[in-house]
Design goal:
The chain is α+β, with helices and mostly antiparallel strands. 16% of the residues lie in helices and 27% in strands. It contains 6 helices and 11 strands. The strands form 2 sheets. The chain has an 8-stranded antiparallel beta barrel with strand order 1-2-3-4-5-6-7-8. A 3-stranded mixed β-sheet has the order 10-9-11. Strand 5 (116-128) and strand 6 form a beta hairpin. It is elongated.
Length: 483
C-alpha cells in the first residue's frame, strides 16, 4: 500500500510540472512504448544499492510538442531490479520498481515529411519500490526517431542518470515504437490556408488557367489584350478586337471571312471570290469587267486586264516592242546596257551612255579639248592641201580618241577664207578635209567611220578683212557623233 501511495505522489508531481510548463494546445501529442535495458559495459555489481540497477524494464511515454523544436515528455517506467534493504542490510532480488519522469525535449523536425528526427532530453526522475524509499535523479538522454509510416516512428536512444544519493550512475539503452496522437489543434485547422495567387490578378492558382499571367475572372484568369472576350491563347488576332466565332479576328462585312483574308473587307462576298462579291468577267482572265480595260481580251492584273504578249508588264497597245521583253521606262523595248535608252534608239546598245548622246557615253572634257585644239593646230602648205608635219601629232591623238569610242563617227569639215574665187576655195576646202581623212585611215581608223566635206568660204568665224581673221577662217573642224 505504501508503494501505491508514494507512486500516486509521483504522478501528482509530474502532472503539476507538466501543467506548469504547458502553454499551448495547438501542437501534436505522441505516445511511445520502449524497452529499457542496462548497458553491460558498466560495472553492475559495484554497488547493489543503485536504484537504477535494472535487469530489464519498460516505459510508456506521453509527449507534447510545443513546436518543431521543443516539447515535454512524461515517461512512466516499470521494471525489475536487484535492490538492497536499507534497514536490514540485505539484498532483495528481482524487486518491482516504478518511476515517473518529467523531461524537456529538444528535437529537429523541420517538416512533417522528415524521415529522421534527432532529439535530446533532460529533467527530473522519481522512482519508488517497496524495498527503498522515493529516489530522485537527474536523467539526460539522446536519441533518434525514424519515420516508418504516417504518424508512426521507430524510436531509440540512450540515457544517463545522475543520482543524488547513490555512488553508482548507470547508462541504459531504450528502444520501441512512437505514435503521433493526432494533428495540430482545432484552432489551426479552422484557420483557412491563404490561397496562392502567383500573378496577383485576384484569382487563386487552383482556379486560374493562366496562373503566371494577369487575367480576368470571366476568362478563368487568362489575359485578353484586345478585350474581345476571347483569351489570348485562343485568339488568332490577340491585338485586334474580333468575334468569338472568328477565333477573335474581325469580320467587318460579316461575310464569314476574316478581314485579313478578305480582299473586299467592307462589302460582303463569297469565299470563291476571296471575300468579294460575284462579278462579271467576260474574257475569263480573273479581272472583273468593271476593272478590266480590255474586257474582251485576256490580259494580266499588271496591265489592267489587257494583253501582254512578251510578259514585260507593258500592254501590247503601248509596247513599242510587243514581242521583246523590256520595261515601261523604255516603252516595253529591251535596253541591253540599262542606260535608259531602248536598243532600237541606242547608238551604243552594248555600252551605257546618255540619252542626249543617243545612248552612247559622253566624250570626256579633255578629249573634246583635243578636237577643238585640232581646228587651230592642223596646218597645210600655202595654197595647198598638203599637211604640214606639225599637224601629225594632233591627228594621231584624234586617231587614239576614235579607238576609245568605237560607236562614234568622225565628221571632218574644211573651210577657207574669202581670198580667191568661190570655186577654188570650195575645191581647196574639200581637198584639205580629204587629206585629214586619208591620214586617219592610214592610222587604222575605219573609213566607214569618217565623213569629210568642204564648205569653202562659208561660215566664217572671224573677219575676212583682216589678216588675223582670215587665218582663223582657214581651218578644219573635227566633230565626233554617235553613229
Amino acid at each position: 500500500m505504501k508503494l501505491l501511495t508514494n507512486f500516486a505522489l509521483i504522478i501528482v508531481l509530474s502532472i503539476t510540472c507538466y501543467t506548469a510548463t504547458a502553454q499551448h494546445s495547438e501542437v501534436k501529442n505522441a505516445l511511445a512504448y520502449r524497452i529499457i535495458a542496462p548497458w553491460e559495459g558498466f560495472d553492475r555489481d559495484s554497488d547493489i544499492t543503485d536504484f537504477g540497477a535494472y535487469d530489464i524494464g519498460a516505459e510508456i511515454a506521453f509527449s507534447h510538442h510545443f513546436n518543431n523544436y521543443f516539447g515535454l515528455e512524461i515517461p512512466l517506467m516499470l521494471g525489475i531490479a536487484d535492490l538492497d534493504k536499507p534497514n536490514l542490510g540485505q539484498i532483495s532480488h528481482n524487486e518491482l520498481f516504478a518511476g515517473l519522469s518529467t523531461l524537456g525535449r529538444l528535437q529537429y523536425l523541420k517538416s512533417p515529411d522528415q524521415r529522421f528526427v534527432p532529439w535530446i532530453n533532460g529533467g527530473l526522475n522519481f522512482e519508488y519500490s517497496e524495498v527503498q524509499d522515493l529516489r530522485v535523479s537527474v536523467p539526460g538522454g539522446i536519441g533518434l526517431d525514424l519515420k516508418v509510416a504516417k504518424n508512426v516512428y521507430l524510436t531509440g536512444g540512450a540515457s544517463y542518470r545522475l543520482g543524488f544519493n547513490t555512488e553508482n550512475e548507470r547508462l541504459t539503452l531504450k528502444g520501441g515504437l512512437k505514435v503521433l496522437l493526432g494533428e495540430k489543434g482545432e484552432k489551426e485547422e479552422e484557420m483557412p490556408k491563404e490561397p496562392t495567387d502567383t500573378d496577383n490578378d485576384g484569382i487563386s492558382d487552383d482556379m486560374d488557367e493562366c496562373p503566371n499571367e494577369i487575367g480576368t475572372a470571366d476568362l478563368n484568369g487568362c489575359p485578353d489584350s484586345d478585350n474581345d472576350g476571347v483569351k489570348d491563347t485562343e485568339d488568332k488576332c490577340p491585338n485586334i478586337a474580333g468575334l468569338a466565332n472568328m477565333n477573335g479576328c474581325p469580320d467587318n462585312d460579316g461575310d464569314g471571312i476574316v478581314d485579313a483574308d478578305d480582299k473586299c473587307p467592307n462589302e460582303p462576298g463569297v469565299p470563291e471570290n476571296n471575300g468579294c462579291p460575284v462579278v462579271v468577267d467576260s474574257d475569263g482572265d480573273g479581272i472583273a469587267d468593271a476593272d478590266d480595260k480590255c474586257p474582251n481580251a485576256k490580259g494580266t492584273a499588271q496591265t489592267n486586264g489587257c494583253p501582254d504578249a512578251d510578259g514585260d508588264g507593258v500592254a501590247d497597245a503601248s509596247d513599242k516592242c510587243p514581242n521583246d521583253k523590256g520595261s515601261a521606262k523604255t516603252g516595253g523595248c529591251p535596253d541591253s546596257d540599262n542606260d535608259g535608252v531602248a536598243n532600237i534608239d541606242d547608238k551604243c546598245p552594248e555600252l551605257a551612255g546618255d540619252a542626249a548622246n543617243k545612248g552612247c557615253p559622253t566624250i570626256k572634257k579633255e578629249e573634246k579639248e583635243v578636237l577643238t585644239f585640232a581646228m587651230r593646230a592642223v596646218e597645210f602648205e600655202t595654197g595647198s592641201a598638203r599637211l604640214k608635219s606639225s599637224s601629225f601629232e594632233v591627228l594621231d591623238q584624234i586617231s587614239g580618241i576614235m579607238a576609245k569610242y568605237p560607236n562614234y563617227r568622225l565628221f571632218i569639215s574644211g573651210y577657207t577664207d574669202s581670198t580667191g574665187s568661190s570655186a577654188t576655195n570650195q575645191r581647196l576646202s574639200e581637198n584639205r578635209a580629204r587629206s585629214c581623212y586619208s591620214y586617219l585611215t592610214k592610222k587604222g581608223v575605219s573609213s566607214q567611220r569618217i565623213t569629210y566635206v568642204g564648205y569653202g568660204e562659208e561660215s566664217p568665224i572671224a573677219d575676212n578683212n583682216t589678216a588675223a581673221g582670215r587665218q582663223k577662217n582657214r581651218r578644219v573642224e573635227f566633230d565626233l557623233k554617235p553613229e
